[in-house]
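Field: sequence (string)
Field: structure_tokens (string)

Example rows 1 and 2, in order.
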Amino acid sequence: MENINIKVYPLTDQGNSTKAFASLTIDDLIAIKGIRVVEGSNGLFVTMPQSKDREGNYHDIAYPVTAHLRKAINKMILDEFKVLTKAVERTPNPLKTADKKSPKKTANDYPEL
């Protein structure tokens, strides 16, 4: 494997355990979508795409075969998630930083009306 491309999409609603979705492409040959970044009781972890059977059990659809590759993918996804969420934290929200002391506008403020 020469190239693994990771894309992480953090969710804006952080109220549930899923914090982001991710996808990866290996050597521009195969893509895996539906990877999730989940916050559990022991911190963040990565889950591969899953399907649910009739009994309610989940099974991975696609997954790394070796522990080494699994660790590498988990690290890349979590590192990218942390970079993106830190960038969002540093970006000021214009709705929160707006000057709250600005006067309300009325129809008189718009002579063209």
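Row 2 begins here:
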Amino acid sequence: MEGRYANFSETFRKHWYKYAKGSITTAEMWSSVFGDYGREIDYSAAKALDREVVLKHRVNQRVLRMLERSRKKGRKTFLVTNTAYEYLNEIEKRHHLRFSEFFTGIIAPYLTGRMKPDERVFSMLIDECGVEPEGILYLDDSQKNVEAARNLGIDARVYRYLG
């Protein structure tokens, strides 16, 4: 983006972090984002933006099958995400999923007050898994998050969804 909205991603991220940690509501998040540009947004428009964000999430069926096989073999699987609680619920509804069927646990900012790539998030993962860091396979699409996990000895790899 150019001009007035050139830093929109940075502005959005700043308010998203507060929202994902549960410090503000979705309406407050969107109001703050638009407020930074001297604009107002009403609640119905904020909800429409939320729906658009959720609609962009795709579920990789291959990954779900891999998670099912891992759980059947008795392996622990964790969802480590920066996604907000309301968004996770919407993703479950939209895709007719129950994350509890695929994951032993969830490590998310609304539960921990921390977001990736904060190394404390990966320390929590190590504690929850109950194994040595090198016994954990961690996949993420962000190199920063992978590096943070590796700093603690976790076998972390960049994963790209190829559709």
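free_text_note (row 2): The two ends are 26 Å apart (CA to CA).
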